[in-house]
Structure formats: C-alpha cells, structure tokens
Design goal:
With about 200 residues, this protein is an alpha/beta fold. The chain is about 35% helix and about 15% strand. One of its GO terms (molecular function) is oxidoreductase activity.
Length: about 200
C-alpha cells in the first residue's frame, strides 16, 4: 500500500490506450484510535483485484493540511497526487450526521484538482452505515464540479462487520458492492478523462 507521504508507485496510462486509471483512495478520519485504515486497506485490495485502476492511498492523518489558505509542503504534495488522479474514493466515518472536519479542510483547500472527475464513497458508522456523511459530501463535491457515482460501499455497526484479519465477515457481499462502485467509477473516470483531453473542463 502506498504510504501517506509517498507518491503513487505505479502510473497508469489512461490517455486513449485503455490502460488503468489512477484512483486516489482518501482516508478521511485522523482521530487517534480510528477505524478508517481497516476498511481502506480492504478496499484498496478490492481495487487491485479489479484491474482497472492504479491505486494511491492518501492518508490525511499523515499530512499537515491547514484550515486556511496557507500552504505547506504537505499540501503541495497532496495537490500533485490529487491532480494526477482520474477518480477518487473517500473512506469516511459518520460524525454527528456528517463527516470529519479534517476531511472538509482537505477538500476545501483544493479546487481544480477535483474538476470533472468521479468520486465514490466507502463509509462506516452506526445504524446509518455512514450514509448521512455521504449525503453531505455529495453536495460539497457537486459545488466543486466533481461527479459522485450512485453506488456506495457502507458498513453499519462497523465494529461487528470485520474480522481480526481486516476482512468483512460477509466478504462476498462486500466485494460485490465494491465491484459495482468501481465499475461505475471506471466508466465515469474514462469518459471524463477522454472528455478533458479533448476539451479542458470549463473552456468555451
């Protein structure tokens, strides 16, 4: 798995060759004792099985992302990784019917990096499975001219959903959900990549 402070180690060639797309998997929780790395690691493995993507796991807990427009070496590096991505998946818990503040700061710091790219979600929480966080995030990404895909992967009552090995107890169902979302990201990612290559988004 790509570490928090490293650039992606594998580069696809999506430009007209049918090669893999670059997918950035963003771990949105930074709290001590967080659960997020567990579903993120599982999902990254599902991405690798899909064979349609090169995956870059971006862990916000390892980065200094300010809540202002003051930049840092970390934000510069993060911006490069986001700009290189053809699609994104945000792994997030639900906090008080929404999503973590550090994730909001990281999203808001950037703009052009999100434009005309697809976004999916892997969420976890209590009975809602984190879906209320997704509903908030859909509005945020729409404002940034990103395209959120319909399907999500969610885990309700998450402490009971994973084994000690980090694999969901209902592995087959979870893998099917991941594949469904990845298929949508692949279609949108390639379509939007090709469209941006023909005409940059926002150009006349």
């Amino acid at each position: 798995m790509t570490s928090a402070n490293a650039t992606t180690t594998t580069h696809g060639d999506a430009q007209g060759t049918g090669g893999p797309l670059r997918l950035a998997v963003i771990i949105g929780s930074t709290r001590t004792g967080r659960f997020a790395p567990v579903p993120a690691a599982w999902f990254a493995d599902e991405v690798r099985k899909h064979h349609g993507f090169d995956v870059d796991v971006v862990d916000l807990a390892g980065l200094d992302v300010p809540d202002s427009l003051d930049g840092s070496a970390d934000t510069d590096a993060l911006g490069e990784r986001l700009a290189a991505a053809d699609a994104f998946v945000v792994v997030t818990p639900e906090y008080n019917h929404s999503y973590p503040a550090p994730l909001k700061a990281a999203i808001d710091y950037f703009h052009a990096e999100w434009l005309a790219k697809p976004v999916g979600f892997v969420t976890y929480g209590g009975m809602s499975g984190g879906l209320r966080a997704v509903e908030h995030l859909r509005g945020v990404f729409a404002e940034l001219h990103a395209v959120t895909v319909r399907d999500t992967v969610s885990f309700y009552n998450y402490p009971d959903r994973f084994g000690d090995d980090g694999i969901p107890h209902d592995a087959e169902s979870a893998s099917q959900a991941a594949k469904g979302m990845l298929d949508q990201l692949s279609w949108w990612g390639r379509a939007l990549h090709e469209a941006r290559a023909v005409r940059p988004y926002g150009s006349n």
